[in-house]
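Handout, page 2. Input:
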Amino acid sequence: MRLAELVHTSATVAGTRARKAKIETLAALLRGATDVRDVRLATAYLIGVPPQGRTGVGWRSLTALDTVPATEPGLTLHAVDDTLSALATTAGSGSAQRRKDLLSALFSQATKPEQDFLVRLLTGELRQGALDGVMADAVAAAFEVPAAAVRRAHMLSGDLSAVADSARAGGEAALAEFRLEVGRPIRPMLASPAESLDSALAELGEVSVEYKLDGARIQVHRDGEAVRVFTRTLREITASVPELIEVVLGLPCTSVVLDGETLALTDDGRPRPFQETMSRFGATSARELLLHPYFFDLLHLDGVDYLDAPLRDRLSTLDALVGDRRIPSTMDPSAAATLLDNALAAGHEGVMVKSLDSPYAAGRRGKSWQKVKPVHTLDLVVLAAEWGHGRRTGTLSNLHLGARDPDGGPPVMVGKTFKGLTDELLAWQTTELRKLATSTDDYTVYVRPELVVEIELDGVQVSPRYPGGVALRFARVLRYRPDKEAADADTIDAVRALLP
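Output:
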């Protein structure tokens, strides 16, 4: 398959608003791929995830290229893949020049639209995450398999290109072969915001209500004496968290997959600032800051998978296994309000309300889990920032905020804010946003939509000022969320749902 076909499809999808039309366009491309490798590569490139992962090529290297575009398209997906593989393995003395030579050779074969696509692919601009869902439906349509089977296989494997290949080769039966594998992380189940505690209790029937800790999501896999720990974005942090490994090795089991939270606590047992917990996930983390793990779900135990079991069964097994490492909870609806008060008094965010009948819908944000907080918060992506004035001169201050388009389009701007930013955050975001800059003018730095920031607000209102038709009211920054990717940001639908 030629890269030009992929670039044309990507542009068509980007210019199409209707989800069904996006799916049909993508499915047509996949059906037309006659080569197994092309199916995998087309799927990977269209969701912005090259099979090689990180190639070591950054924005600065790409913008420094001075390559005349080809006049006619001729570059194939195979040729692109071969070059990216070479880039990913180039290291040692003289590697910078070899990388430059590889990139120059690749870009000299690409037309201007193909060059633009490759830049966005290599810098992560194509990876909006929301396209995963559209692409999964396109795989289902292209190879005439149920969309639910595609989504489940993707959830278990984390590799949509491999799922597409299996759907093409073996249909639904091949997709059913994907299983939970201890040691390989799966996409976590997500929660939707609730209007109130009472509304969540009324909607979900028999429930478990538990603390929503002010910590960081973790997924823990144990196979014998081997333990691996992953973040909510499936990044492995095992080497940074020896105290978590010690706890899991002390559990009375041989193999297990647990979902939970970890956080650093003060001497009186209250949560330390979120950024301090997150600092432990770095390569040079401060080990003197002890992390405490607490678990709220169990996906596998000693050879038995629990993904499809109802929550009541998963919790019964979990309680017997982890004891006091279980997040505080109750199944008594009359005690839910007291549990919420206790969670807030202890310095946590609120509570989670979960249907006891629900299976573990990994990678999905449904209504079976609902989060209850005393204030409105949204996770949004930073689209740009304006240079500050007065004492903020020299720092990027006023943030342009965007909500995720659930159909895979670019983020939808919903407001601005400069409130809630400490001097420390101002300095940090100025450094980080300049690294993500795509263009600038006299007042504003426009950036790749990668950084997620948690925003507290009083509500939203109808407004023609922004493309989504809504605007945030009295928005202020709570914190940045380095544990989340742009694909984890709240959608424009979630913002509109806050309209009075």
